[in-house]
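hey so u asked for the seq, here:
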Amino acid sequence: MPDTTQKDGTPEAAQKDGTSEARASEDGTPEARASKAGASEKEQAPRRRQARGERRIAQLLEAAAQVFCTTGYTTASTNAIARAAGVSPGTLYQFFPNKEAIAIELGDRLMHEMREAYGEALAPVDPATPLEEAIGSAVDRFMAFNTDHPVFFALMHGPDVPGRMAEAHDQLHTTVIGRIEALLGSLMPGADPADVTRTARVCLGVYKAGLELVLAHQGAERAAYIQETKDVLIRYLEPLVGDRLGRT
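ran it, structure tokens below
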């Protein structure tokens, strides 16, 4: 039998070394590159599936918004939402277990957008800004969000709002009142805090009443109701604020 204990310099060792070198050089072959590309494709596949899933969720939420606005949350069904989205109910259930889960996801996303919009609308006002301009700017921002997303009003003011959404809306309402109080407090120095709170609540109540009318109309009539809402707020706040806005 041949001696295989001495590896250095033997034909067998040379053969092994050659094999190792051949294997090492395989990384540069078309086959190796194809194998690496296949592995990269496998890594990218979950990301593509995730992106497709996000697009499907967005599609379902958009369809749900249409259905909730048309029929209201109470009478809406997952079948109607699936039909509006152009998918089967089975596809819908892959992402949402029921109607409430869809409404909560939609509400959470809109609530985040609303906080940003309301934060901009209720930012501190430059004293040189005329009262009409300050109120007009704030109302326009509030109205723009709600007219762009009418489903928010439909969900939050419906008779059967999911509990979690109602709690989130109550928290948002408290935050908005606080922001209005802070804004009014800077314009009504020396006023009793209870008076400032009352004024803030009246302002928000007037806005909500105007919003309901605005959402019920389109075109020129909608624009007219927006202006009426501004006029009511201006006439209400003018004697309270006095000449504290519009100073140069």
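DSSP finds ten helices and no strands in the chain. The radius of gyration is 32 Å.
lmk if thats what u needed
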